């Protein structure tokens, strides 16, 4: 390195080299030549040479030069590795010969190498980042994807002598993108509904053919059928059902897998049971609780916490194409480490969705079971009305609701009819419905008027609950806002008294087919308080139809309540052979697909009237002599009815009740006997004090009469009226009467 002066006078560093010449010293010819170059220019030249050398030998980007006939004239070391041969063995070959069957997959460009290169040579426009899919000669068993760029080559005079190709294998990046896209798709498509079978089918469909040629999903029987966790134990204890299966080619499935056919008429017809032999990948996965990779089969357990809900089996086919379409994973017959991790992640997400569906199934099953137990299964025959009823639970999406109904026998051959609706869905709603139904039954047995019963029920709902465990407002939220309709029908007077708390009014169908909806004061929903409840009393002709229902029957997304009420009126006004047939017609017309977003309850009651010959009633003065007269009237009526066997007990009952009315009540008195399914005896007075059972001391002169009465009859009680009270008793008929 020397410091030299340029001809223009400035100094610069130069590098010199003294090189011997061939034939030096012959004939006085110079023996050496001195070469001098500026240091900056030399460094640039050396950098270019190093760059060219690196591109040729060390660059991971494959470089190749093709002449104008598209025959390869040069390639670097990376390209040689892709071909799997030294340059001398494929020099002069065309690009389509080296990658036969490959194609460009970037939209908007020709599919073949020839077409793209000719386009670059003809136009001089470079083409960047085209994606080429093909099978390299160095890896004939796997499909690869390259990012390719092309630009035209010209000499110093501007003559075109070829095209340069640079390519970079992006197969790993593409696989990572596909895996991420598959995870996103799995998150979007599985778990769309809370159903175990649907979730299993979704995981099978979303992973074929993007991840495997065939996918099978087996879930424990108890999880599918009842939503329970399977018992932990040996693999043999796991009873599996095939609930999901999808394949691009039936031959991709393992033909050696044993399947036991389901029994006819069994749910296993749709979900066949499966049994895996000892030592199979599935058996080993169940035994270990972990995933098992065996050649082209990958088995991943559906794990949730410490439990295994089932298995997912991924199967790959060795064939690169199915129906002319290459599989996304290529012809590979096994799974790499990244794909094993992806399968584990897919199964984990599926397991969470299946567990959510399992929990929903279990709660829904429990809710339905509780609701069925709380609703009346069999309505005992009534003298007052003929009864028919229907109940439809809500759909699987919404969950079990809290609609309910009841038929309550009351004193004096009367009957209480009630329907109600609890806000919300699920197990809490069903339990709340049971509490309300029990409360209504208890209040009804006290012979409360409908408005008084709803007032007591409203007070009960409005009371804060006693804390049980962690604080929760779930019960208060469900009970507050519940609705109820309660009606009492008396077959003797044909009078019906009803009241409602935020519920829809009943429909009344008269014997001539005319349908009306009584103008019954609405009253606030239960638990809100602040406003009184009002009763409405109407007289119903014999054969009238009273329809009590919940809003799920008449309200839907595609129409409002008024349209539903009009449709219900048209159905009820149509003559029908029986009440059951009328129930079926109403449900079919208003709930055609048998599933709604809310529960549906329908209670139909056709009124009767007790024949006058079965009722005897007398008005008596409140005098001491009335007791004897009452005994004579009662025994005479029993003789006319052929019930002399009950005369002794009835005389004692009448004597005690009339004596108490004369002594503690006020006149006039009314004595009534009703011959129904039992013998009913009623004594009414104008007093409002109720007698009570008590145990008399040995030296007491009185107080034993009511105790004796209670031993002689089946039931007794007190019914209050605006004019006073009525003490009533029921006696069973002698055995001969039942015949």
From TrEMBL:
InterPro entries: Bact_Sigma-Reg, GAF-like_dom_sf, HATPase_C_sf, HATPase_dom, PAS-like_dom_sf, PAS_4, PPM-type-like_dom_sf, PPM-type_phosphatase-like_dom. Keywords: Hydrolase. Transmembrane segments: none annotated. Residues 255-287 are annotated as: Disordered. It comes from the Bacteria. Gene3D superfamilies: 3.30.450.40, Histidine kinase-like ATPase, C-terminal domain, PAS domain, PPM-type phosphatase domain. This is Protein phosphatase. It comes from Streptomyces rhizosphaericola. Pfam families: HATPase_c_2, PAS_4, SpoIIE. Residues 382-607 form the PPM-type phosphatase domain.
């Amino acid at each position: 390195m020397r410091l030299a002066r340029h001809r223009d006078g400035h100094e610069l560093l130069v590098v010199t080299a003294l090189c011997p010449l061939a034939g030096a010293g012959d004939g006085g010819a110079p023996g050496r030549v001195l070469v001098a170059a500026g240091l900056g220019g030399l460094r640039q030249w050396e950098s270019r040479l190093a760059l060219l050398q690196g591109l040729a030998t060390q660059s991971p980007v494959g470089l190749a030069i093709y002449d104008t006939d598209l025959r390869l004239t040069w390639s670097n070391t990376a390209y040689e590795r892709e071909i799997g041969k030294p340059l001398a063995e494929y020099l002069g070959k065309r690009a389509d010969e080296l990658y036969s069957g490959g194609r460009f997959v970037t939209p908007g460009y020709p599919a073949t190498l020839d077409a793209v290169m000719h386009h670059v040579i003809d136009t001089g426009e470079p083409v960047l980042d085209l994606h080429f899919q093909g099978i390299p000669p160095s890896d004939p068993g796997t499909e690869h994807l390259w990012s390719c760029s092309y630009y035209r080559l010209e000499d110093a005079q501007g003559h075109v002598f070829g095209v340069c190709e640079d390519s970079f294998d992006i197969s790993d990046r593409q696989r990572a993108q596909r895996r991420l896209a598959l995870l996103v798709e799995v998150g979007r498509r599985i778990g769309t509904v809370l159903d175990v079978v649907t979730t299993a089918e979704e995981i099978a469909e979303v992973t074929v053919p993007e991840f495997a040629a065939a996918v099978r999903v087996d879930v424990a029987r108890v999880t599918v059928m009842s939503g329970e966790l399977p018992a932990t134990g040996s693999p043999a204890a796991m009873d599996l059902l095939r609930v999901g299966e999808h394949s691009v080619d039936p031959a991709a499935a393992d033909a050696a897998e044993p399947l036991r056919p389901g029994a006819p008429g069994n749910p296993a017809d749709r979900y066949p049971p499966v049994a895996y032999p000892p030592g199979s990948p599935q058996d080993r996965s169940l035994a270990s609780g972990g995933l098992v990779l065996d050649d082209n089969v990958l088995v991943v357990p559906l794990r949730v916490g410490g439990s295994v809900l089932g298995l997912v089996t991924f199967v790959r086919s060795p064939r690169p194409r199915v129906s002319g379409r290459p599989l996304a994973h290529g012809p590979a017959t096994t799974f790499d480490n990244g794909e094993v991790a992806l399968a584990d992640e897919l199964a984990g997400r599926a397991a969470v969705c299946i567990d959510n569906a399992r929990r929903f199934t279990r709660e829904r099953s429990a809710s339905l079971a509780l609701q069925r137990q709380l609703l009346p299964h069999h309505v005992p025959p009534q003298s007052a009305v003929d009864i028919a009823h229907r109940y439809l639970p809500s759909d699987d999406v919404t969950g079990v609701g809290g609609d309910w109904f009841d038929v309550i026998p009351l004193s004096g051959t009367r009957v209480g009819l009630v329907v109600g609706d609890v806000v919300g869905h699920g197990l809490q709603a069903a339990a709340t419905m049971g509490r309300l139904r029990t409360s209504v039954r208890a209040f009804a047995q006290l012979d409360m008027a409908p408005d008084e019963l709803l007032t007591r029920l409203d007070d009960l709902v409005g009371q804060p609950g006693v804390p049980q465990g962690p604080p929760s407002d779930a019960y208060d939220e469900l009970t507050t806002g519940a609705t109820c309709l309660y009606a009492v029908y008396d077959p003797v007077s044909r009078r019906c008294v009803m009241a409602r708390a935020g519920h829809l009014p009943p429909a009344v169908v008269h014997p001539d087919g005319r349908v009306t909806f009584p103008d019954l004061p609405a009253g606030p929903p239960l638990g809100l308080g602040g406003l009184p409840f009002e009763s409405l009393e109407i007289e119903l002709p014999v054969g009238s139809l009273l329809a009590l229902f919940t809003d799920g029957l008449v309200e839907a997304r595609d129409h409002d309540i008024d349209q539903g009420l009009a449709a219900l009126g048209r159905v009820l006004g149509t003559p029908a052979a029986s009440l059951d047939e009328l129930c079926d017609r109403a449900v079919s017309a208003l709930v055609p697909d048998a599933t709604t977003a809310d529960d549906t309850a329908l209670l139909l009651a056709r009124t009767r009237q007790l024949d006058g010959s079965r009722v005897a009633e007398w008005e008596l003065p409140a005098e001491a002599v009335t007791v004897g007269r009452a005994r004579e009237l009662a025994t005479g009526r029993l003789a006319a009815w052929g019930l002399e066997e009950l005369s002794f007990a009835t005389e004692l009952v009448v004597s005690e009740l009339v004596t108490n009315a004369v002594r503690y009540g006020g006149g006039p008195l009314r004595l009534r006997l009703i011959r129904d399914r039992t013998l009913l005896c009623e004594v009414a007075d104008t007093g409002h004090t109720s007698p009570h059972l008590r145990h008399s001391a040995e030296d007491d002169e009185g107080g034993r009469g009511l105790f004796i009465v209670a031993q002689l009859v089946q039931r007794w009680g007190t019914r209050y009226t605006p004019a006073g009270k009525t003490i009533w008793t029921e006696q069973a008929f002698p055995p001969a009467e039942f015949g």
